[in-house]
Amino acid sequence: MRVDEEIRSRLERSLEIVEAPSTRVEPVVRRARSLRRRHRAAALMVAAVGIVALVVPLVLLWPLGRDEVADVGPATEPGRLVVAARVPIAPGITDVATGFGSVWVTGNNGVTRVDPGSDTVIAHIPVPGTGDYSGIAVGEGSVWVTAPELRPDGSRGNLVRIDPDTNEVAATIHIGGPIQYLAVGSGSVWVTLPDAGTSTVFRVDPGSDRVIGSIPVAEASGPVVIGEGSVWVTHPWVGGIVTEIDPTTGQVVDTLDVASVQAVGDGSLWGSTGESVLRIDPDSGSVLATIPIPRAQTVAFDGSTVWVLVSPRSSDPELFYPIAGTAGVVRIDPATDRVLGEPVALEDLQPIAMAADDRGVWVADYYDGILSRVEVGG
Amino acid sequence: MSPDEADFRQVYEQAFPVVYRVAYRFSGRREAAEDAAQEAFARAFERWGRLRAEPWVVGWIVTTALNILRRGARRVPEPSREGEEPRSPATDVEGALDLWRAIRELPRRQAQAVVLYYVVDLPVAQVAEVMGCREGTAKAHLDRARDRLARLLEPSEARWEEG
After folding, report:
1. Domains of chain B with CATH codes
2. What ipTM describes this predicted complex?
3. What is the pLDDT of residues B106-147, one digit of tens each?
4. Contacts of B132 (CB under 8 A, 6+ apart)
5. Among A72, A84, A134, A299, fewest CB within 10 Å belongs to which?
6. Does A254 contact B34 at a Cβ distance shorter than 8 Å?
C-alpha cells in the first residue's frame, strides 16, 4: 500500500539523520540490578506484613479453640485447585474483603463476617443503603463499606466504618451520590464516585472520619487499588484507561492506556481485559505480559500467586444468560507469567468479586449469595 | 559475563540507536531521549528472563521509553526542540518532521501503534502483544492513525502526481 510505504520511508529518513550517542551497556546493567534489588526489598516487605497480619489474628484466636476446627476441604490431588467451602450468605452480595482474621462480605443491607477457620457466619452487621453497588475494604484498623443507596434517614452515598473488635458501625461519613468502589492505603480511604462526565475520587481521613480531598478524574471511575506508591483508578467504560494518583499530593499524575488495574504484586500491576490478564510495569505503564485467559474478570494477589476469576459463559451471544459450571478460578505464577495447572469450575451464575487470603481466594456470587473458598488442594 | 548479559548486550547494541532516535523525535531533547532510552533498557534487563525470547522485545523497549518520556514530561515544561533541524521547504526532512509532529499529536495508543508498526516494523499481531490489546484493536488504532497521517501526505503526493 502506497501510504504505508510513504509513511515508513519518511520516518526512516527522519531517524537516519539523528545521530545516536555511543553509550555503554554497563551503567544500564547496574541500573537494572538496582531496580531488581528495590523490587525484591519491596516484595519482602509486603510478605513480612502479610505474615504479621496472618499470625496475629491466629494467636489471638488460639484460646477460643479454633485449632480444633476440622478441615472441611475434600481430599484432592496435590496442587489442584478445589472449592473447599461454600458458605451461604444471601442473594445480592456485591463485594468481599479479607482482614482481621475474617472474611467480610457486603450487600443485602449489611455486612456479613465469616470465620475462615470454620467457614461459618459469625456476625451480621446491618448497614442500610448498601444496595446492589456496595464495595468493601479493610485497613487503618477498620472495615469500610460504601452504602450508595437511600437510607431510612433520607441520605444517599455514605461511607460506613465498622469496628472489627465490636462488629458495630463506628462512623457514617456522608459523601453523597452513587459512590461504589473504595480502597484503603497510604493513610487514607479512597472512594470513587462514577459519573458520565468528570467523576470524582474522594479522600477520607480515617482518623477524623472526614472527607479531606476530592480529586476530579476522567468519566466513569471504577475500581481503585493502591500499591507501588500510587493510587490506581480504573475507568472500565471508557475504552480502558487507568488514572494514577499520587497519594502524597492527592493529584492526578498520569493516565495509563490499559484496560484495568485490579491488583498489585510482585513489583507489577495486574489487570484483566475480558480475554486476558495483563501484567503492567508501574514505572512506565508498559504491558509486561499478556496472559490469555478467556473471560478473565478480575484479579487478586495473595503475596505469591495471582488469582483470576473467570466469568461464566453465556448461552446467548447478545444477552447474558450464564451457564452454571462455566465460571471458574485459575492461578498465574508471577515468576513465569504462566497459568498454573487447571482452572477449578464454579457453580456460580454471577460471581461478582474475589479477595485473597493466606489460604486462597474467596469468591462472592451475587445471584445465589454464596461465598466460595477456593484453595490449592492436597 | 552471564549468557543473559551477553544476550542483552547484543540487543542493546543493535537497538539502542533506534530507541534513542524515536525518543528524540518525540521529545526533541537529546538528554531526555538518552535517559529514557537507557532507563527503558534497564527495565528490560530487569525482566530479561521474561522478555528475551519475545520477538517484540525491541517494540517493548521503544514503548517503555516513550512512556518514560511521557511520565517525565509531567515534571518538565514543553520540550524546547533544541536540536530539531531547521525547516527547509526543499528537503525531504521537512515532510518527515511534519509527520513526526502529526504522530506526536495523535492519541497515545495510535502513536504507539504507528511507531511499533512503521518504525520497529512489527506485524500487527505483535503490535497488539506489546500494547496488551486484541489484534483487532491494534488494527483499529493503526487504521485511524493512517487516515490522519495520509491527510498530511496528500498535498505532496498530489504534487508528485502533477509532476
Report:
1. 1-84 (1.10.1740), 88-163 (1.10.10.10)
2. 0.83
3. 888 889 999 999 999 999 999 988 888 878 888 999 999 999
4. A258, A259, A273, A276, A278, A280, A287, A290
5. A72
6. no
Cα maximum dimension of chain A: 78
How far does B80 lie from chain A, in Å, by closest CA? 16
8 A C-beta contact, residue A248 and residue A231: no
User: What part of B 12-41 touches A (C-beta under 8 Å)?
Assistant: 12-13, 16-18, 20-22, 24-25, 30, 34, 38-41
For A71-98, b/e burial (b = at least 16 CB within 10 A) is: eebeeeeeeebbbbbbbebbebbbbbbb
Count of Cβ atoms closer than 10 Å to residue A48 Cβ: 10
Model confidence over B45-67: pLDDT tens digits?
Answer: 988 888 888 899 999 999 999 98
Query: Phi, psi at residue A243, to the nearest 5°?
Result: -90, 135
Q: Do the chains contact at B43 and A27, CB–CB below 8 Å? A: no
**Extents of the domains making up chain A:** 27-60, 86-297+312-324+352-360
Which residues 327-366 on chain A approach chain B with CB closer than 8 angstroms? 336-337
Check CB contact under 8 Å for B20 and A21.
Answer: yes
For A86-297+312-324+352-360, CATH number out of 3.30.420.140, 2.130.10.10, 2.60.120.1440, 3.90.960.10 equals 2.130.10.10
**What pTM does this model have?**
0.75
